[in-house]
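Researcher: Let's do a round of design. I'm pasting the structure tokens now; please hold your answer until I've finished.
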């Protein structure tokens, strides 16, 4: 490369080497399957994601004692019923196209990078990688995927938090911006009105959140799966993938929900001065002061109701599709 282009070329080489490593570890099919499986699961889990986000904004910065008396959203089921009643059944699948895009794109990197990173830090194939290696690999792959997908996350959160005047008034929320008419309108207005800064708002919190989520989720899933099969309690089958996905979802929610709440509140605040929060630290301080420790776990029940079936389906679909691809490859080899 010419001298002036050394830096871009170095970046291009790094990106190329990473992609080659991902392809070598999972194969092109594996990379595609990691996105397809998560996107398919999203079709079923999205209503619970909408419920989680609505609960996170219910009584925002309202003292806990007052919020208990006036809250609109209570249980997860009641939240779903309330959304359908006031905003219509379609609101339960708010932001579905961008949610599917988010799952496909994010899991391409999140799952795709995990294996190569584990292999790079623990090249011995005869022994399982230590938990600390998996946690570190999950943290890195989660943070990278969050940074790349941040604009998609912003649009998804805003579309799912969007509600009508009546329900907003009941939950004590202020409607910060004119409602988006759809996914395209949301992306266009985000880029035009808030520029690069708005597209990557809250990215540091999102990277930290995704690092915690991915490291806990993928580590719990892989360790539990290996442990159960090693003990001979279950074979490597769909039932095991579903069970491990459910447990890993609980670990994920427990670790990342507080940062998930902080990130979503930063995503949804108005892009005009004075802002509700000056940054992540200010959001944490105000939430703690107004809502207490439990305020950080507002919507955690809905989060698990979304995460458990989502990861159960994601891992089950991924493993079955992967086996199907391997079987087809073996059949092709047999033909030759």
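Researcher: That's everything. Go ahead.
Model: Designed sequence:
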């Amino acid at each position: 490369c010419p001298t002036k282009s050394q830096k871009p070329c170095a970046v291009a080489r790094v990106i190329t080497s990473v992609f080659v490593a991902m392809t070598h570890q999972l194969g092109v099919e594996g990379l595609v399957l990691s996105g397809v499986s998560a996107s398919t699961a999203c079709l079923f889990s999205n209503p619970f994601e909408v419920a989680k986000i609505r609960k996170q904004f219910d009584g925002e910065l309202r003292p806990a004692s007052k919020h208990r008396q006036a809250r609109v959203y209570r249980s997860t089921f009641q939240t779903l019923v309330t959304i359908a009643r006031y905003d219509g059944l379609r609101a339960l699948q708010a932001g579905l196209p961008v949610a599917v895009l988010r799952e496909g794109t994010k899991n391409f990197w999140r799952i795709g990078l995990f294996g190569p990173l584990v292999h790079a830090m623990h090249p011995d194939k005869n022994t399982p990688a230590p938990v600390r290696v998996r946690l570190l690999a999950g943290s890195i792959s989660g943070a990278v995927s969050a940074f790349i997908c941040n604009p998609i996350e912003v649009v998804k959160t805003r579309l799912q938090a969007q509600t009508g005047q009546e329900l907003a008034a009941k939950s004590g929320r202020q409607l910060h911006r004119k409602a988006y008419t759809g996914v395209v309108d949301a992306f266009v207005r985000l880029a035009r009105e808030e520029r690069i800064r708005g597209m990557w708002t809250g990215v540091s919190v999102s990277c930290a959140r995704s690092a915690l989520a991915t490291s806990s989720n993928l580590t719990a899933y892989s360790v539990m799966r290996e442990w159960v099969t090693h003990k001979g309690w279950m074979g490597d089958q769909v039932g095991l993938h579903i069970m491990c996905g459910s447990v890993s979802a609980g670990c994920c929610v427990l670790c990342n929900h507080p940062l998930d709440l902080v990130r979503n509140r930063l995503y949804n605040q108005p892009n005009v001065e004075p802002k509700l929060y000056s940054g992540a630290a200010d959001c944490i301080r105000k939430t703690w002061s107004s809502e207490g420790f439990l305020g950080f776990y507002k919507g955690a029940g809905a989060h698990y109701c979304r995460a458990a079936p989502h990861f159960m389906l994601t891992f089950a679909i991924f493993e079955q599709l992967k086996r199907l691809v391997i079987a087809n490859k073996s059949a092709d080899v047999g033909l030759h």
